[in-house]
Amino acid sequence: MASYVQMSIRSISTKKVYNLRLTSNESLEGVNLAREEYEFSYIDGMGYHFMNPDTYEDITVSPEIVEPVKDYLMEGNIYILLFTDETVVSVELPAAITMEVAEAPEGVKGDSANNVYKSATMTTGLVVQVPLFIKPGEKISVKTEDGSYLGRVN
User: Are 97 and 77 in contact (CB under 8 A)?
Assistant: First the structure.
């Protein structure tokens, strides 16, 4: 009688989760992963440029890989790049990030009795629901998991 191993695995590139059922004598090939800190530098026609703060090495990451996190990228901030076989497969964000409000409509007076929110656009293009008192030019903390407002930053 053969025994089975059931597992869930996640694709690095698509982030999809797959359920596998293997017999005990089947095997999977492992993947070597490395996480390294890089500073986001700039965007050009070739892609998104990140610099290693220790070696000053410049790495260009394709727009397809950066697409899910592009609205959180700000020049000079440190991000974690996930490598497999010396190829960048993912950009990981910190739990929260400080962003500057570029546009925010005026709050309506008298609406402050309830927790009322308005849409504000950050300098990166990300739209965040913020309290009525937030004005353009202010810095706020944004939760990167869901893009929600955490608070003002001084």
Answer: yes
